[in-house]
Design brief:
Distance between the termini of chain B: 30 Å
Number of domains of chain A: 1
Radius of gyration of chain B: 24 Å
Radius of gyration of chain A: 22 Å
Distance between the termini of chain A: 23 Å
Strand content of chain B: 25-35%
Strand order of the largest sheet of chain A: 1-4
Order of helices and strands of chain A: HHHHHHHEEEEHHH
Strand content of chain A: under 5%
Number of domains of chain B: 2
Shape of chain B: elongated
CATH topology of the largest domain in chain B: Rossmann fold
Oligomer: heterodimer
Largest interface: A-B, 27 and 34 residues
Shape of chain A: globular
Structural class of chain B: alpha/beta
CATH class of the largest domain in chain B: Alpha Beta
Largest sheet of chain A: 2 strands, antiparallel
Number of helices of chain B: 11
Low-confidence stretches of chain A: none
Mean pLDDT of chain B: 86
Largest sheet of chain B: 6 strands, mixed
Number of strands of chain B: 14
Structural class of chain A: mainly alpha
Order of helices and strands of chain B: EEEHEEHEHHHEHEHEEHEHEEHEH
CATH architecture of the largest domain in chain B: 3-Layer(aba) Sandwich
């Protein structure tokens, strides 16, 4: 597998999609600190934008996996690997590892550039070092989850264009689901600060009343679990929330990676390749 | 005879369609084996199976003594190179980079042989031109160069002359012959261009509806397709005596029919037969090509 990874890594470094994706990420990593500084001046707090990458790194991974792995099918070079005597399991794992490493590398580039631009403008992130490291760790695991999901789809679709469309659509579907779940979870338990007009036409402040959209007990637990399970939910929580269940998120990422990889290897071993 | 590839009862079904239906094949070591068949006969499916791209539905094949069901088949497959359908090349890489990539895949210790492969396939002057800008012939040759990267003993080429111009076809033929003669590489070629195939093949396998109809060596085929004069005579006994006296090779087909091989001096033959009291009722010249052999074997009808 070492040979496969070495060959894949060399090709990844020359891959146009990877290079263009990295350039786009660098552009975004410069944009956020600069725009925050221009809007808020000295009031800009890096915490507000520093982890934004966890929102859109999934798009990068989805496009990278589908284009990089799709080339193996569209140009027929997957055949070279099989004819060279590599097992399908090794081919799958090598592809997954290289796509994951490339995505982590892109994320690292984003963080470094954002720090280099952001710290002189807006100062350091106002968090303890362990908290920052935990967020990086969860982000890395989230990238691993994304990579394993999109590798699975790309390896099972021999049509490069179809795989690209499916991957990107899936990312946005997961993102919309996470947004909906988080919005339900963020509903307040009581409706407060409302007024009503009494019979005499006076404005009367109302007593707090239960919010029908507020989730309780099992539905709330299920929603919370789904938010922690979905990589997009993890990304949203890291961007918007101070506290999050990072231990459960890490466990979910390990589960997603293991599940999709086992399923992918199983399906790829039975796949007829043209 | 030693074989590098054999198969018995090999089948591949795609839902209800039987692409291969109990096929058997025997590819002798050192041969150039021509796989001949109509569209959809199962040539490419067979190649996909032996390259490990697909799994047989039933039956098995043996590659260099390793059965397809053995785990060691991947090791045997390292002894082969293949170009299946279209050449498998990275379009954004140059010829040299593509071969270098294959070297990395194979884990070869150095890149020393790359320039030799480029020269062998006539791609030594492509420089920084990427494969995207190659002609079809150049891509085909690059595909072969990649297939040769691991110094294989067995080369599988699926329609190597497809889409090539006449000059490209001649170059491809010469390359295949060189590889076979100078490097003793066994070559399995599937081709529609039967005339071209007949210039290189030492053995043939005729496929139809996923089955091997006949395997024949080029020598046997040459005998079967030999130029001859088919005579209808009153009795073959007299003919045999006359032909023996004249030292001509012949084959008695029936009581009144025989094939006479070689250069026949017809007026002398007719006079000699007349003296023996044998009448010549008719004669036809037979000169069967690979194409006509194929058509008669498959029963004509569809095109190759």
């Amino acid at each position: 597998m070492y040979k496969l990874m070495w060959a894949n890594g060399r090709r990844m470094l020359r891959d146009k999609a990877f290079r263009i994706g990295c350039v786009c990420l660098i552009g975004v990593s410069v944009y956020f600190p600069v725009s925050y500084h221009m809007d808020l001046g000295d009031q800009a707090i890096p915490n507000n934008y520093f982890f934004y990458f966890s929102l859109f790194i999934g798009v990068f991974v989805s496009v990278l996996c589908s284009l990089y792995l799709g080339t193996e099918y569209s140009e027929g070079t997957m055949r070279n690997k099989l004819i060279a005597g590599h097992t399908r399991r090794n081919i799958y794992l090598a592809n997954l590892i290289v796509c994951t490493l490339a995505s982590l590398f892109a994320m690292a580039v984003y963080i470094v550039v954002e720090s280099l631009v952001g710290i002189p403008l807006n100062g350091r992130v106002q968090m303890d070092l362990p908290e920052i490291l935990i967020r990086f760790l969860v982000s890395g695991c989230m990238v691993l989850s994304f990579s394993s999901i999109f590798t699975l789809l790309s390896m099972l679709h021999q049509n490069k264009a179809a795989a690209s469309v499916i991957n990107v659509l899936l990312f946005f579907a997961l993102m919309l689901t996470a947004v909906y779940l988080l919005s339900r979870l963020s509903e307040s338990e009581f409706i407060e600060n409302y007024v009503y007009i009494d019979n005499l036409g006076n404005l009367v402040p109302g007593d707090p009343m239960p919010n029908p959209l507020y989730l309780t007990k099992t539905p709330r637990a299920v929603c919370e679990f789904l938010c922690d399970l979905l990589p997009t939910g993890q990304g949203l929580q890291m961007c918007t929330q101070i506290f999050f269940r990072w231990g459960r998120m890490m466990g979910c990422n390990v589960g997603i990676t293991a599940g999709t990889t086992l399923l992918g290897i199983f399906a790829f071993q039975r796949k007829d390749i043209k | 005879m030693e074989y590098c590839l054999t198969a018995e009862g090999l089948s591949k079904h795609y839902r209800h369609f039987k692409a291969l239906n109990g096929l058997s094949i025997h590819v002798p070591k050192g041969s150039i084996y021509g796989l001949v068949g109509r569209n959809g006969a199962g040539k490419t499916t067979l190649i996909r199976l032996i390259c490990g791209l697909q799994r047989p539905t039933a039956g098995e094949y043996t590659l260099y003594g390793r059965k397809s069901t053995d785990k060691e088949i991947t090791e045997a497959r390292r002894r082969m190179g293949a170009v299946v359908e279209t050449p498998s090349v990275y379009p954004d890489m140059t010829a040299e980079e593509n071969i270098r990539q294959q070297y990395l895949l194979l884990g070869l210790p150095s890149f020393d042989g790359i320039s030799e492969l480029l020269c062998l396939t006539g791609l030594e002057n492509t420089g920084k031109k990427t494969a995207r800008h190659f002609s079809l012939g150049m891509r085909q040759r690059l595909g072969i160069a990649i297939a040769l990267a691991g110094a294989p003993d067995f080369l599988v080429l699926d329609e190597p002359a497809n889409g090539l111009d006449p000059e490209g076809i001649v170059e491809m033929r010469e390359l295949i012959l060189r590889l076979n003669r100078e490097r003793q590489i066994t070559v399995l070629i599937s081709s529609h261009i039967l005339d071209e195939l007949s210039k290189v093949a030492t053995h043939y396998g005729f496929l139809d509806h996923g089955r091997m109809v006949r395997e024949v060596s080029a020598r046997d085929l040459e005998i079967a397709c030999r130029k001859c004069v088919r005579l209808q005579i009153s009795h073959t006994g007299s003919l045999a005596r006359v032909l023996d006296q004249m030292g001509l090779e012949y084959k008695i087909l029936g009581e009144t029919e025989a094939d006479v091989y070689g250069e026949v001096h017809l007026s002398r033959l007719v006079m000699a037969l007349s003296q023996e009291g044998c009448e010549v009722l008719g004669m036809q010249e037979h000169n069967e090509s690979l194409e006509s052999y194929f058509m008669s074997l498959m029963g004509g009808g569809d095109h190759v």
